[in-house]
Amino acid sequence: MTGHPFRAPTEKGRPIAQVVLRWLLQRDVVVIPKSIRADRMAENFDVFDFELTDDQMSRIAALDTGASQFFDHRDPAVVSRLGNIRLTD
C-alpha cells in the first residue's frame, strides 16, 4: 500500500480519531477516550464495525520514531527549564 497510513480508512469516511482508537483496540490496549460532545462520543463507540489491515497496523506503528516532536522529558536541561516556569510573580 502506498501513501499515508491513515489515507484508506479516512477515505472511507473514518475520522482519524476513529482510526487511532481502532489501532489501539486491535493492539489490545484499553482506551478511555474523553469527549464532552455527543457527536464525538458516538464516533468513539463507532469503531467496532471495521478493522485495519495488517499493513495499516504496521504502517501506523512505524509513525512512532521514539522521539518527541515537542521536547524530550528525559533531558535534564528541559526538565529544569520546565520545572522553573512560574505562572505568577
Protein model, in words:
The protein is mainly α and 89 residues long. It has five helices and no strands. The chain has helices spanning 7-11, 16-26, 38-45, 54-61, 76-83. The model has no long low-confidence stretch (mean pLDDT 84).
Short structural description:
With 89 residues, the protein is mostly helical. The chain contains five helices and no strands. The protein starts with 6 loop residues before the first helix and ends in a 6-residue tail after the last helix.
Could you give the topology of this structure?
Elements: H1 7-11, H2 16-26, H3 38-45, H4 54-61, H5 76-83
Distinctive features:
89 residues; 5 helices; mainly alpha
User: Helix-strand pattern, N to C?
Assistant: HHHHH
State the helix count. Answer: 5
Q: Tell me roughly what share of residues is in helical segments.
A: 40-55%
Roughly how many Å is the radius of gyration?
Answer: 18 Å
Net shape: extended
Biggest β-sheet strands, sense, barrel: none
Strand content: under 5%
Number of strands: 0
Low-pLDDT sequence parts: none
Distance between the termini: 55 Å
Give me the secondary-structure category. mainly alpha
Mean pLDDT comes to 84
